[in-house]
Amino acid sequence: MNRRRLYPDLIRALDRNPAVALLGPRQVGKTTLALELGATRPSIYLDLEDVSDRAKLEDAKSYLSDHQDKLVILDEVHRTPELFQTLRGLIDQGRRQGRTSGQFLLLGSASIDLLKQSGESLAGRISYLELSPFDVLETAAEQTAALWVRGGFPSSFLAADDQTSYEWRTDFIRTYLERDISQFGPRIPAETLRRFWTMLAHNQTGLHNAASLAEGLGVDGKTVARYLDLLVDLLLVRRLPAWHRNVGKRLIKSPKVFIRDSGIAHALLLIRNKEQLLGHPVVGASWEAFVIETLICAAPRGTEANFYRTSNGHEIDLVLTLPTGELWAIEVKRSSAPKVERGFHVACDDLSPTMRFVVYPGNERYKMNEQTEAINVFTLAQALQAIE
Q: 3-class secondary structure for the chain?
């Protein structure tokens, strides 16, 4: 398996900042990546879920001062939010002594408390990076279908067979519901949250309809909003905002919502392998969510992602506003012989994108017309990654 794409960015961030927060859901590979980097320089690793490691930090200032010549890696740092004030003092002390970078690498399984606490205490001292599951650029073009079915969590994607992968994902879901989520907010009944998560899986890339979800769960709209915020903050669900700039048209304002890892979505829907997926009603929406998430992760930092839909149904599945200001309009199709509806062309006329693509499962890249290219997700992700 190739080194994670984020590795060079992580090195650059540590070389420029006293602290770096590496965020991502559990089991995505944060610890492996951090230890790989730690092996290249003097470092010390503390797992704050380990009682003995937490005990070392009872007098955190004294202990960390003894290791000020090393990179200190703090795993699951959200478990000790009181530590951030200490880190702030040590960073400022290090700056006065000429140590301006590479002091602390903080690993967190969610953006919730980590962003809040570090944002309050370490402003101007910390950089944030997000590690996602494997994507097509970290595997191989011929493994795209397997990545779609199993998802990109390393233990799932690299499992010996589909059944082992499926069992790992069901255990992952159960662990999150029964143990992990309770760490990040008020107690939520595990079965209720599972139903909510499953409802989102059935409605991959659909418009968010809080009233419908609330009715299905037997709760109110505010509760649905709280559940959704939690899953978004845990980096498990993506809320894709609608295009909001004025184009003189009546635009849909509700976001699209989907589970970020396709393998987790499939496990929630009890889909064990590709054959079951291809026969399931969610197949088209699942493929669309997989492609959108892949391209957002491949896009350069600073890219803004939206979808575009007017009240009369003219739509673009994904609009990427690149840091250069260019717009890329992307339509997603599951067919090996894709055709583009008139609504896509009308929507493109509204936005005048620089590039227009139709992503499909085939291998050939070709012109569909003067302005639109058919392309596979691997090749388009490569093109996005190449943008500087």
A: CCCCCCHHHHHHHHHHCCEEEEECCCCCCHHHHHHHHHCCCCEEEEECCCHHHHHHCCCHHHHHHCCCCCEEEEECHHHCCCHHHHHHHHHHHHHHCCCCCCCEEEEECCCHHHHHHHHHHCCCCEEEEECCCCCHHHCCHHHHHHHHHHCCCHHHHCCCCHHHHHHHHHHHHHHHHHHHHHHCCCCCCHHHHHHHHHHHHHCCCEECCHHHHHHHHCCCHHHHHHHHHHHHHCCCEEEECECCCCCCCCECCCCEEEECCHHHHHHHCCCCCHHHHHCCCCHHHHHHHHHHHHHHHHCCCCCEEEEEEECCCCEEEEEEECCCCCEEEEEECCCCCCCCCHHHHHHHHHHCCCEEEEECCCCCCEECCCCEEEECHHHHHHHHHCCC
Domain ranges of the chain: 7-130, 136-385
For domain 7-130, the CATH architecture is: 3-Layer(aba) Sandwich (3.40)
pLDDT values of the chain reduced to their tens digit, one per residue, 388 residues: 457 999 999 999 999 999 999 999 999 999 999 999 999 999 999 999 899 999 999 999 999 999 989 999 999 887 787 888 899 999 999 899 888 899 999 998 876 555 666 666 788 888 999 999 999 999 988 999 999 999 999 999 999 999 999 999 999 999 988 877 766 666 778 888 899 999 999 999 999 999 999 999 988 889 899 899 889 988 999 999 999 887 667 888 999 999 999 999 999 999 999 999 999 999 999 999 999 999 999 999 999 999 999 988 899 999 999 999 999 999 999 999 999 889 999 999 999 999 999 999 999 999 999 999 999 999 999 999 998 7
